[in-house]
Amino acid sequence: MELRTRTLSGTLGLLAHSEPGVLDAFAKLWGTDELLVSFDGMNFTLPQPERADVKPWPHIDQSPKRKGLVCAQGIINFAPNGPQDGGLVVVRGSHNLIAEYFKKHGMPPEPRTWGPEDYFSFIAEEVDWFKEAGCEVVKVCADPGDLIIWDSRTIHYNRLPESQQVRSIVCKIGPPPPPTRHILSRRLLTGWHTKDACYAPARFASEKDLKLKAQLFHERKPTTHWPNMNIFDGTSVDELRFGKPDACKRVRPVNDVVETDTVLRLAGVKSY
Hints:
Largest sheet: 6 strands, antiparallel
Radius of gyration: 18 Å
Number of domains: 2
Shape: globular
Number of helices: 6
Distance between the termini: 34 Å
Order of helices and strands: HHEEEEEHEHEEEEEEEHEEH
Helix content: 10-25%
């Protein structure tokens, strides 16, 4: 369902992305408060006991071709998220072995990405290599108001809930955390559910990417996790829902964003 919720738009997106606690955390990681935010998605998962089983889809959101840590991803958690509530699963420590893995095994002959360069999926046998090297599969638990940040080279995926807990998050890609920290969980908000939140320094973005980013913001269109590079229109081309035109599809959100200076700078429309 394409509701234009994947841009920095709507009342909820504005409140979450402009939350001082979120901005401060990423500003400390980067050493600057001149940040851009990515136009990514929101996760709102309802309990559904008879839901069809979904297999894990382990992946990384930074191209193996990029050397070192280039960005990190973030989730603003709005609802209780326990061991059985679904949510983020990481292969802890895998970010430290990504370069070694691809040096040893190389790239597969067929690309494993749905489009953007900064994505690579793994099959179960490949994840076993990381587990045998000492990595641990961990379900990340969080409370309402927690911010979770992880290295984008970390193998991760989303697990569906097994409980009756509603899951709602906001997620984005942002700055790299210090090398001694893999996952940062910090109390930021109260109530609600979850949203992706990723920020990176504006100075790292090219003029071309800034121009496209501003255009997509004005059109209320999504991009990817990346806030400052690899910018492209991520709008779904599927106009059908269950074989019929999606009656909920709209061009702009019902509660549109108030374009403050802070919002326009985060969106790349105004310069710092």
